[in-house]
Specification:
This protein is mainly β and 174 residues long. The protein has no helices and 14 strands.
Length: 174
């Protein structure tokens, strides 16, 4: 069974996007899931080492992050049974999609190393940076995006395969 289970996102229909982890000899394997109408469905990006599902909208579109075999993370959108990688252009080695609203607007973050340093909004094929206008780049976690474009924090791991923590602080408002 699972060592840990996290329900990261819930839509208006009560469907849940999340992750379940299995620990073997101190190493975690992470898999995403969709819980709908009493049934768990595994979410695993083909060829990925780990997958985490962070959010789901009312149309059933799921976003999250996956770890490739080179150790880089990528954002993904699962829509109508098809996985699409969505990474910020030139977004270095770490990307995650953390929220999706019912209009299909997606929030995410990218960076280098083990932290996400820049937040972004992805809408209709276009990226908009969502960094705070003060201070140097720091670790950011944009969280879920509402139907009016505001975001709220979402707990994120430092990267896929790392320990989890809860984030706090001010968040960008569109």
């Amino acid at each position: 069974g699972a060592t840990d289970t996290y329900a990261w996102g819930v839509n208006k229909l009560g469907e849940i996007a999340g992750e379940w982890d299995v620990e073997v000899n101190g190493e975690f394997t992470e898999s995403g899931f969709l819980y709908s109408n009493g049934t768990f469905t595994n979410i695993a990006v083909p060829g990925a080492a780990d997958t985490i599902a962070y959010a789901i909208n009312s149309a059933g579109s799921v976003v999250g992050t996956y770890l490739d075999t080179s150790g880089n993370t990528h954002g993904f959108l699962l829509q109508n049974g098809t996985y699409t990688t969505i990474d910020y252009p030139g977004g270095n080695s770490e990307n995650a999609l953390t929220g999706i609203n019912d209009n299909g607007v997606i929030s995410g973050a990218y960076g280098a190393g083990v932290v996400y340093q820049h937040a972004f909004i992805y809408q209709k094929g276009q990226f908009t940076l969502a960094d705070v206008p003060f201070g140097p780049p720091a670790e950011v976690e944009p969280g879920q995006v509402s139907s009016v474009g505001t975001t709220r924090p979402t707990p994120l791991p430092d990267r896929v395969g790392a320990k989890h923590r809860t984030c706090s602080g001010p968040w960008w408002r569109r």
